[in-house]
Automatic annotation (TrEMBL):
Keyword Nucleotide-binding appears in the UniProt entry: yes
Protein name (database record): DNA mismatch repair protein MutS
DNA repair listed as a keyword: yes
Residues that, per the record, bind ATP: G621, P622, N623, M624, S625, G626, K627, S628
Segments forming domain DNA mismatch repair proteins mutS family: 695-711
Gene Ontology MF terms in the entry: ATP binding; ATP-dependent DNA damage sensor activity; damaged DNA binding; mismatched DNA binding
Family: Belongs to the DNA mismatch repair MutS family.
SUPFAM superfamilies with a match to the protein in the record: DNA repair protein MutS, domain I (SSF55271), DNA repair protein MutS, domain II (SSF53150), DNA repair protein MutS, domain III (SSF48334), P-loop containing nucleoside triphosphate hydrolases (SSF52540)
Gene assigned in the entry: mutS
GO BP annotations, alphabetical order: mismatch repair
Length: 869
């Protein structure tokens, strides 16, 4: 227990998994916390300072599942292993304790095990650093080796964390409260480190040592803040991995201007990678993901989270998709081959950390084999992006041959299980396996050889626990074997009442080999495994490039499959200020309607093109008519186009978009003391303070969370600011019909409405966006559809009619309200459905439309009209 307490003292902030034979055991407060979190039994073992020691444990072979539960519940775990066997410990003294060391700290951002990770998502560890007025954000996924850094002012930290969704963020200790709050809002775990970890001078040494270079100039010109952030990550990895650093790719510097700016509220409102409920289902990513590899899925999420705003990059990606669409047969063959590609990146990372097994070697082998097949299937006349990818897939023949000859087809998960090296690859291994598996037949062959040598047919080779293997013959033949020349071969071991026992040098050596054959075979396989692992690591950079190339091909062909299957079009993206969408659709809503077997999605046009002035559509119409869907779908079409995808529309011409802002929906933030209206105003303020003339802005119901005139004035001023200051392309949905007059006052502002029809007091939504303004909001009709009691609906109609009449007569809202009998003792009676047929129904009862002549049908219409009057 003294050993446990000593190791625990050095890892106070983590649960200590203390290896005891086949179990990891936890003691004291660690045991109490783990037992509750894992829902396992809490027991006790021994005493400390006169009190029972709480204890719980988990089996070593099932530890990963327990680790996952603890990590998800916010714990960190220090894994303490036995560094020697009990037998080795006893050599130092009979009471010596087995030496144990913490070999790894398991934290949310440093996971590598396949069972602990989501295959189709990155698992980022980030670090934020501030140095003399500059700040930077660095992030790494040690399960794939991706390493990035970018300058990041503190005001941009929240949007970048929302884009990356890291699992853990490293900051300097004594961190300011607002920074901790930003990290907490992103859902990441906050980890403070000492200022020494963020020292930019030491960071240079850490990075050059990691990548084995003299200078970082080949990777880019990094600021001191960027060096500080990257150095902190490397130092943290050194701490958590106990000096065994993962295989990282050289750091890549991102420029904030290279991606479309999307803040956290917009990502949430547009449901890019997660729905409003927090799950993947219902998000844009779930609706469009047709990738067939894990790496391709991760690349898709990166592209959707950070669409490019570099025109050449966008066009190169669209050209790749266009090729895959036009060459659909080739694209289908490529996708079939890609389905057989394992997760090369993560297998490579585990091998680099020495946590890999034979299956990871097999994953590299199988992945490179498929890469060669895909390169052969790729035509010569492919777009540049795919051509570069194809080049990265070749040149691995030597490594592929080595792995192919060395490994069996389906190796086991763990190296300690053995049996993964192919027969015939290593002669010594084959010999050990033969002795291990066929020892009895080898002994029988030696027995036959000795019988022939001596002429004694009754000679037997036997085995017991005392002598081991021995040769036994009857007493009458013993003298012959003890005489020359046989005495030089056969050595006397034992004489019994009925037999004499011998051995030979050859038999003794064979016995040793047989007894050690199993362990010897495992040792040889482990040695070969290490040789193969080092061979893979020597080509890690080229293998990583091949993995990236496969992901690029997967994404291009999956976008093509999506475009063909969903009838999407190729967008025109240029440097203009155009935004002209014909027949645009919302990909998620359309997908949901199809699954429900309901009505088809109604496509709509949207033209926000403008040369100099702002281009704003002021959208009016009732709730439930599809205004929010229309707003979102146009933002998503712009995002998809700049992510390099075809778009859900008949045609799309999009001038380069720099920012996408969305203020849609209503929610509060009680944890921070913000009401629904305050959240709305904070998000609106962020848009007005940041949007530039290349932005796309969608705003819905600004000002609805406060009093009517307050809300109207805020919405009015917001629209004027978007038009005159931001000069952005925008869709502005509102129920304040008074604002429709702005279309006649501000150039570039147009009225649009969602068409509806009324029928017998009910409202029918047509979901068609048309030019013009709505005359009313149809709120009472929507309330009736929602199921409000008939008495409430009838009373609302009375109040609405009175208010509208007062406005028309000029009496003002206040005067009308004063005259309303709002507190009448007798409530309005509930409407009673008529059971008597109307005159029109009587007239139609005996009419047979198929028997009417055109003249008779016309006469019937006139007669029915007369009955209505």
């Amino acid at each position: 227990m003294a050993q446990f307490l000593e190791i625990k003292e050095a890892h106070k902030d983590a649960l200590l998994f203390f290896r005891m034979g086949d179990f990891y055991e936890l003691f004291f407060d660690d045991a109490v916390a783990a037992a509750e979190a894992l829902d396992i039994a809490l027991t006790k073992r021994g005493k400390h300072l006169g009190e029972d020691i709480p204890m719980c444990g988990v089996p070593q072979h099932a530890a990963e599942n327990y680790l996952l539960t603890l990590i998800r519940k916010g714990f960190r775990v220090a894994v303490c292993e036995q560094m020697e066997s009990p037998a080795e410990a006893k050599k130092r003294g009979s009471k010596s304790v087995v030496r144990r060391e913490v070999v790894r700290l398991v934290t949310p951002g440093t996971l590598t095990e396949e069972s602990l990770l989501e295959a189709r998502r990155h698992n980022y560890l980030a670090a934020f650093a501030e140095v003399r007025g500059e700040s930077a954000l660095a992030w790494v996924d040690i399960s794939t080796g991706a390493f990035r850094v970018m300058p990041c002012p503190k005001v941009r930290l929240a949007p970048e964390l929302a884009r990356l969704t890291p699992r853990e963020v490293v900051v300097v200790d004594r961190v300011e409260g607002d920074l901790a709050e930003l990290v907490s809002e992103s859902g990441a775990s906050l980890t403070p480190l000492s200022p020494a970890s963020f020292d930019s001078t030491n960071a240079t040494g850490r990075l050059t040592g990691l990548f084995k270079v003299d200078s970082l100039d080949a990777f880019g010109n990094f600021s001191r803040a960027e060096l500080s952030a990257m150095g902190a990550i490397v130092d943290y990895l050194d701490i958590t991995q106990k000096g065994r650093l993962p295989l990282l790719r050289p750091p890549m510097r991102e420029q904030p201007a290279g991606n479309v700016q999307i803040d956290a509220a917009t990502r949430r409102n547009l449901e890019l990678t997660a729905s409003l409920t927090g799950g993947r289902e219902g998000s844009l990513l779930a609706a469009i993901d047709r990738t067939v590899t894990a790496a391709g899925a991760r690349l898709l999420e990166r592209r959707i989270s950070a669409p490019s705003r570099t025109l050449n990059t966008i066009k190169a990606r669209l050209d790749s998709v266009r090729f895959a669409v036009e060459q659909s047969r080739i694209s289908a063959d490529l996708r079939d081959a890609l389905r057989k590609v394992p997760d090369i990146d993560r297998a490579l990372s585990r091998l680099g950390l020495d946590r890999g097994g034979p299956r990871d070697l097999a994953a590299i082998r199988n992945g490179l084999e498929q890469a060669g097949t895909i390169a052969q299937d790729m035509p010569d006349d492919v777009p540049p992006l795919l051509a570069d990818a194809a080049k990265a897939l070749i040149g691995h023949d030597a490594l592929l041959d080595l792995l192919d000859h060395a490994l069996i087809a389906e190796p086991p998960l763990l190296a300690r299980d053995g049996g993964y090296i192919a027969p015939g690859y290593d002669g010594e291994l084959d010999e050990s396996r033969t002795l291990r598996d066929e020892g009895r037949s080898v002994i029988a062959g030696m027995q036959a050889e000795y019988s022939a040598m001596t002429g004694v047919q009754s000679l037997k080779i036997k085995h017991n626990n005392v002598l081991g293997y021995f040769i036994e013959t009857t007493a009458k033949h013993a003298d012959m074997m003890l005489s020359a020349p046989l005495s030089e071969t056969f050595i006397h071991r034992q004489t019994t009442a009925n037999a004499v026992r011998f051995t030979t040098v050859e038999l003794s050596e064979l016995e040793t080999k047989i007894l050690n054959a199993g362990n010897r075979a495992l040792e040889i396989e482990k040695r070969i495994f290490e040789t193969l692992r080092h061979a893979v690591m020597d080509q890690a950079a080229q293998i990583g490039q091949a993995a990236s190339a496969l992901a690029e091909i997967d994404l291009a062909t999956s976008f093509a499959d999506l475009a063909i299957g969903e009838n999407w079009c190729a967008p025109v993206v240029d440097d203009s200020r155009a935004f002209d969408i014909k027949g645009g659709r919302h990909p998620v809503v359309e997908n949901a309607l199809r699954k429900q077997g309901g009505a088809p999605f109604i496509a709509n046009d949207c033209d926000l093109s403008a040369d100099q002035e702002a281009a704003i559509w002021l959208l009016t119409g009732p709730n439930m008519s599809g205004k929010s869907t229309f707003l979102r779908q146009n933002a998503l079409i712009a995002l998809l186009a700049q992510a390099g995808s075809y778009v859900p529309a008949a045609s799309a011409h999009i001038g380069l978009v720099s920012q996408i802002f969305s203020r849609v929906g209503a929610s509060d933030d009680l944890a921070r003391g913000r009401s629904t209206f305050m959240v709305e105003m904070v998000e609106t303020a962020a848009i007005l303070n940041q949007a530039d003339d290349r932005a796309i802005v969608i705003l819905d119901e600004i000002g609805r969370g406060t009093a009517t005139y307050d809300g109207l004035s805020i919405a009015w001023a917001t629209l004027e600011h978007l038009h005159g200051v931001n000069r952005a392309r925008a869709l502005f949905a509102t129920h304040y019909h008074e604002m429709t007059t702005l279309a006649g006052q501000l150039d570039g502002v147009e009225n649009a409405t969602v068409a509806v029809r009324e029928w017998e007091g009910d409202v029918i939504f047509l979901h068609e966006v048309q030019k013009g303004a709505a005359d009313r909001s149809y709120g009472v009709q929507v309330a009736k559809l929602a199921g409000l009691p008939d008495t409430v609906v009838a009373r609302a109609r009375v109040v609405l009619d009175a208010l509208e009449k007062g406005e028309r007569d000029g009496g003002g809202q206040k005067a009308v309200i004063d005259d309303l009998p709002l507190f009448a003792a007798t409530p309005a009676p509930a409407p009673v459905a008529s059971t008597k047929p109307s005159a029109v129904e009587d007239a139609l009862q005996d009419t047979h439309p198929d028997e009417l002549t055109p003249r008779e049908a016309l006469d019937l219409v006139y007669r029915l009209k007369g009955l209505l009057e």
